[in-house]
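User: Show me a protein chain along with its predicted structure.
Assistant: Here is one chain, sequence first, then structure tokens.
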Amino acid sequence: MTDHAHDLESVRGATERLLTAVAAMDNAAVTKSSRLPGWTRGHVLAHLSRNADALVNVLRGRPMYPSAEARDADIERDAPRPLDVQLADLRASAARFDEAGAEPADWSRTVELRNGVTDTASRVPFRRWVEVELHHVDLGTGYELEDLPAEFTQREIDFLTQRFRGHPDVPALLVEEDDGRTIPTGRDGDPALVVTGLQADLLGWLAGRRDGSALTVHGGTLPALPPL
């Protein structure tokens, strides 16, 4: 089972890095466009706060969000807030998630996330870690994929290749990391493609944060991945 206590500690570290970066912003910076199409930095910050509360719901056996519409409406409502309010909300929601993670629980139990997706409770802290790290990059304030902790990058590559494994819209391929490790993903069958590159570039492509132009493809052309 995933070491949830280790991942909770990793979430704390990632959250502190995020809070430090956000505290260095000003109100004008919050209104600037993020790297996510259609979202300002305020949208990203609002999403991070509401996601923390949503994952508290998951850990406590409640629906993650009341509905997709309510999730989107909450983000739109909270996006225009000034920096001090965004920062206070980030801190408070992170503390609520940390508190929920500290409660005695059966971490092997199955929990339900969005859209009927299920997972073990022990994986929820890693999912929060993913949100904090990747959306910190999405803010476009100087924190890049190359700055992510090595453990996180490796685990997220593993998670995403597993997610695309067997996907009918992704051809069978091997992802080859710069250390020589290969990971199969995509449709079942013998891989005809091998995609190689630095871990940050591979993660960027798999997570939809980079176009893959820095990667090398053997056996064909780089496939377009379906949205996460």
